[in-house]
Write a structure and sequence with these properties.
The chain is an alpha+beta fold. The protein is built from 10 helices and 7 strands. The protein has a 3-stranded antiparallel beta sheet with strand order 3-6-7. A two-stranded antiparallel sheet has the order 1-2. The longest helix has 16 residues.
């Protein structure tokens, strides 16, 4: 692939991503194929054509991050989403895990038996308590109109039977949403027309906070790193992708070529700058 990669349509994207398949396969869980991830990324672009307007390298990097996490970036199953937003005036694609993705990663750690999150509505019967005897009780209303969402909680049961939970108010969720640079996009799950999709974002927010209380894994830590980087407007840069798309340019001037030759030469072949000639610093 050339350094100045241009992607104008889904066909060109698929072609570019296919060159990345060997590296995707290196990091994907064994049950997945690199070609599957390519198709998922292309399908995400069908659902949100704005992705194709993003910097090509950011699409490739987002796909690679999805591969590292072993999550589907198409958005159809709630495992993850490709979301375009501007970073320093450049439309940039970023991969963000969804609620389903964070739950799956917790299960894959092999240290968690149950993880779930639920949104609390104003007509529900709900109470919780922290401290030495933590407790949580939630009885959803049977009313067809449960009222507005007032909070969300996430609970986990570890393999040893221990339980833990976190509760977040609607205001706390709103603060997290406001920090998300992609939340204002019309294609963001935060802006979905389906209430259940928006509630999944509430649930994801609670599970993300619950992660801090759970035994971690490499994938869980990476998921949090991805989330934090996206919020900061600094999407992760993937060396494996940049090595393909941005290879180091060969030296073009005589001075640059000489420097390259010297840096590659063994130490014994370098010119002696005074050593053993009687005029060195130490005599």
């Amino acid at each position: 692939m050339a350094n100045a990669l241009v992607i104008r349509n889904r066909g060109e994207l698929e072609h570019a991503l296919m060159d990345l398949v060997p590296k995707l396969q290196d990091v994907l869980p064994r049950q997945y194929r690199g070609e599957w991830l390519v198709r998922s990324t292309v399908f995400a672009c069908m659902r949100n054509p704005k992705i194709l307007e993003c910097a090509p390298i950011s699409i490739m990097e987002s796909t690679f991050v999805a591969a590292q996490l072993g999550l589907d970036p198409s958005g159809t199953g709630g495992q993850g989403y490709l979301i375009p937003y501007r970073v320093k005036d450049v439309l940039t694609c970023t991969f963000q895990p969804g609620y389903r993705g964070l739950v799956d990663l917790a299960y894959r750690s092999g240290k968690v038996a149950i993880v779930e999150a639920r949104v609390v509505h104003e007509k529900d019967e709900f109470d919780y308590e922290y401290g030495l005897s933590p407790a949580l009780k939630h009885v959803p209303t049977k009313d067809e109109d449960p009222g507005i969402a007032i909070g969300v909680y996430a609970v986990a049961t570890l393999l040893d039977g221990k339980k833990t939970f976190v509760y977040m108010t609607a205001r706390e969720v709103a603060v997290i949403k406001a920090r998300s640079r992609g939340a204002s996009s019309s294609k963001s799950p935060w802006q979905a027309r389906e209430p259940e999709v928006v509630e999944q974002m509430w649930a994801k927010t609670a599970v993300r906070r619950l992660y801090k209380l759970l035994p971690s894994s490499r994938e869980m830590n990476l998921a949090l790193e991805v989330e934090n980087a996206a919020e900061a407007g600094e999407p992760l840069q993937v060396r494996e992708v940049r090595d393909i798309l941005e290879p180091e340019a060969p030296p073009t001037t005589k001075t640059e070529r000489l420097k390259a030759d010297l840096s590659d030469a063994p130490a014994d072949d370098l010119p002696d700058s005074g050593r053993n000639h009687g005029d060195g610093i130490f005599g």
